[in-house]
Amino acid sequence: MGGRLTRVFRNFNVENRASREISKEKPTPAPRHRTARLDSAADRPEIKEEVLRRDDRFLTLLKDVYVESRDPPVRVKDEGGEHLPSKQEEKRLTKLGHLEALDVKTVSKGKISLVEALTLLNNHKLQPQIWTAEKIAAEYSLELKEVNSLLEFFIPFNVLEFPKETKKAVTSHKPKQLT
């Protein structure tokens, strides 16, 4: 309610107030600082002559100046684990399963695609005696410690479906009556 009231007073006679403000004489601007008038000083001939005059004393001093610069030899800092790639990375073909359309065709050695990761995790979960960490490392060109970490920390989900009889038994269960 307060907003409506203030809007009424703010918009009252707004056109007349605006036209009155527009028709007022413009105030004269404040005088400029004298440094702003340097462009008019450049038009004077004695200043132009001073700028264009050559000073032989300064030219001889300038000719005596000789600058020789040498860049220090470039040293590449070795950060330990980070190495600049010296050649193009080796690629390997992916082990495509039934999700062939979703996966990439080539992967760098030492890496796996998402579909391959899910496949090897599922194979290890279903048959851990056959799909050991050593076999997975050899099959997918991975390091053994990375495979061990992968198998330890990433576990695929289990999808459980309840039989229909169990669902009926759960929904048809009658609560006990308290006496």
Explain this structure to me?
The protein has 179 residues and is mainly α. The protein has a domain at 91-153. It has nine helices and two strands, in the order αααααββαααα. The protein has helices spanning 2-11, 14-23, 38-41, 45-52, 56-64, 114-126, 133-140, 144-153, 164-171; strands at residues 91-93, 106-108. The protein has a two-stranded antiparallel ribbon. One of its GO terms (biological process) is mitochondrial respiratory chain complex I assembly.
Short structural description:
This protein is mainly alpha-helical and 179 residues long. 45% of the residues lie in helices and 3% in strands. It has a domain at 91-153.
Give short descriptive properties of this protein.
two-stranded antiparallel ribbon, 9 helices, 179 residues, mainly alpha
Number-wise, the strands total: 2
Give me the Rg, rounded: 42 Å
- Measure the end-to-end span: 59 Å
Principal-axes shape call: flat
Unreliable segments (pLDDT under 50, ≥5 consecutive)? Answer: none
Biggest sheet, spatial arrangement of strands: 1-2
Total DSSP helices: 9
Q: Structural class from helices and strands?
A: mainly alpha
Q: Tell me about the biggest sheet?
A: 2 strands, antiparallel
User: Helix and strand string, N-terminal first?
Assistant: HHHHHEEHHHH
How much helicity do the residues have? Answer: 40-55%
Mean of the pLDDT scores? 77
Oligomer status:
single chain
Percentage beta strand: under 5%
Topology:
Elements: H1 2-11, H2 14-23, H3 38-41, H4 45-52, H5 56-64, E1 91-93, E2 106-108, H6 114-126, H7 133-140, H8 144-153, H9 164-171
Antiparallel strand pairs: 1-2
Helix pairs in contact: 7-8
